[in-house]
Amino acid sequence: MVNRNLIRGLDLSEEEWQRELEAALEGNMPDDLNWGSQEVAVNQIVQGKVLRVDGDYVLVDVGYKSEGVILRNEWEDDEPPPERGQQIKVLIEDVEDVMGRIDEARGMISLSKRKAEKIEAWMKVMETVQEGDVVTGEVTRKIKGGLLVDIGVNVFLPASQVDIRRPADIGDYIGRTIQCIVLKIDEARRNIVVSRRSLIEAERAEKKAQLLDELEIGQRRKGIVKNIAEFGAFVDLGGIDGLLHITDMSWGRINHPSEMVAIDQELEVQILHIDREKEKIALGLKQKTASPWEQVEGKYPVGSRIRGTVVNVMSYGAFVKLEEGIEGLVHISEMSWTKRIGHPSDLVQIDDEIEVVVLGINKEKQEISLGMKQTQQNPWDEVSHRYPPDSLVSGIVRNLTNYGAFIEIEEGIDGLLHVSDMSWTRKISHPSEVVEKGQTLECKVLSVDQQRRRIALGLKQLGEDPWDKDIPSKYELGQIVKGTVTKITNFGVFVGLEDGLEGLLHISELADHKVEDPEDIVKVGEEIEVKVLRVDPDERKIGLSRKRVEWAEEAEAEEAKKKAEGHAEAASPGVDPATLKGGVGDSSGPLIKPRSASQGSDEAESAESS
């Protein structure tokens, strides 16, 4: 009968075991497996006496009227050959005329010595072995699907049951004496299936339970390294595996667990954590020694200079080993006062020995901030003395942005030339309109911010401001000038009067009639005549008019008067401007005086031109 409780404890069901066994036996005849056959069971085993040996045949007297015959090859090479008078046990197989060439008048009995021995061995095993028993035997052969183990008779050990982790070649077990547990006995087919894995698992389960009861956090235990992965090593503590994570192997830097441990190596480890429910154990190797971080603040005070070795270079900085287990980071921003560093490898390489300054320590996070540039004099400390405001400097345009150009005055010292400081008169949208990358340029120092490490430069400041005298004297109110349309917007037209100087021709000043779209009147690049309405040096603006070019002085005055009256009515509809008063109760007079026509005209022109 099959021990079903034993089968349920395994990975496969009873039906799956049967399929696995049949697959393993495919192509193997029972005689090849030395298991015998059903035919043996129906015959009789008797005592016989060797009469003589004739070539390939042995004649045996079994007490019948006729002798029996056994093939000579039933005696193995390593056993004594048959001798006359020798007593042996044989199986009577059949009566047949197999010796016609010797004596055609006599019928002979067909016998088998080998089958008799196998049947007796099987019967002997069946008297002592049951399912669930532990048996010991020698691995004799490798067959399809597993191994044959001799326990008195050959039994089948499937490949999946050889060990907990299936070995690369089960043939390595041939010749070894092993212990297995009997999984299944098929008496009819004289098959026995055994498992070494089940026995090992049962033993490990017992040891595991006992070991879990004994383990405590902080204990030190010896174990054997069974497996190595990228993240750590599994250590057999004697019934249960614990994980020795790579971060718990050494206080120092390691790239792979194989740098610290090897398969089958015996280690003494410390228990860090126990999860009894999930049967998981965390182990540590470095915890057997004191952490070098315990005395780090006293050993490496902030501001101290030390030497270390570069152990890793990343895009954001370089890691420097100060001692075994102590590493600090030199951020890329702390490598040089002046050099533009694309990658830390531009300055340092792995295994370089460098001098650094301790900038900060975070003992809890086990982090040290280091600096390389702090070992040298900061050139910005002298910038304000070397480049005072109003001094002239020469540099190379290194970079252009939307708001200006960066000029390198010396290595690592840049000044910013803002677009607003490039020209007194031109409205510059992008610095590329004035300068180009790589160009050597002379500028004036406007200011130096040593704390923020910034130098403001000016290009237009090399010359006089034309808005102080030149432009107001050149463009007077009412003057008729020629200009070129440079830009058209929804509120008006910009007219270029000279290099970089533009005036605004408001949409209301384009024509006598109401204009919806300025492009209906003028086009970009068209040369037109305009009248100067306003020159504002403070705002740096010039107001222009096209419709007033042909107007006489009387028309100008009338237009100004209308606009003035319109402003007054909009401020206080139906009220005489002369009666407007205000204040805090004082009757001495109005706070807002009525405006003259000329004042109103000026303000109107100012509003229109802006």
Query: Cα-atom Rg, whole angstroms?
Result: 54 Å
Strand order of the largest sheet: 1-2-3-5-4
Low-confidence stretches: 1-10, 28-42, 97-106, 568-610
Span of the ends, CA to CA? 109 Å
How much of the sequence lies in strands comes to 35-45%
Q: What assembly state would you assign to the polypeptide chains in this entry?
A: single chain
Describe this protein's structure.
- The protein has helices at residues 4-8, 14-25, 38-41, 113-128, 196-214, 296-299, 383-386, 470-474, 553-571, 597-609, and strands spanning 44-54, 57-61, 68-71, 87-96, 108-112, 134-143, 146-150, 154-158, 177-186, 191-195, 220-228, 232-236, 241-245, 266-275, 280-284, 305-314, 317-323, 326-331, 353-362, 367-371, 392-400, 404-410, 413-418, 440-449, 454-458, 480-488, 492-498, 501-506, 527-536, 541-545.
- It is α+β, with helices and mostly antiparallel strands.
- The strands form 6 sheets. The chain has a 5-stranded mixed β-barrel with strand order 1-2-3-5-4.
- Helix 9 packs across helix 10 (597-609).
What keywords describe this structure?
single chain, 610 residues, alpha+beta, 5-stranded mixed β-barrel, elongated, disordered N terminus
Topology:
Blueprint (H helix, E strand, L loop, with lengths): L3 H5 L5 H12 L12 H4 L2 E11 L2 E5 L6 E4 L15 E10 L11 E5 H16 L5 E10 L2 E5 L3 E5 L18 E10 L4 E5 H19 L5 E9 L3 E5 L4 E5 L20 E10 L4 E5 L11 H4 L5 E10 L2 E7 L2 E6 L21 E10 L4 E5 L11 H4 L5 E9 L3 E7 L2 E6 L21 E10 L4 E5 L11 H5 L5 E9 L3 E7 L2 E6 L20 E10 L4 E5 L7 H19 L25 H13 L1
Parallel strand pairs: 3-5, 13-15, 18-20, 23-25, 28-30
Antiparallel strand pairs: 1-2, 1-4, 2-3, 4-5, 6-7, 6-9, 7-8, 9-10, 11-12, 11-14, 12-13, 14-15, 16-17, 16-19, 17-18, 19-20, 21-22, 21-24, 22-23, 24-25, 26-27, 26-29, 27-28, 29-30
Helix pairs in contact: 9-10
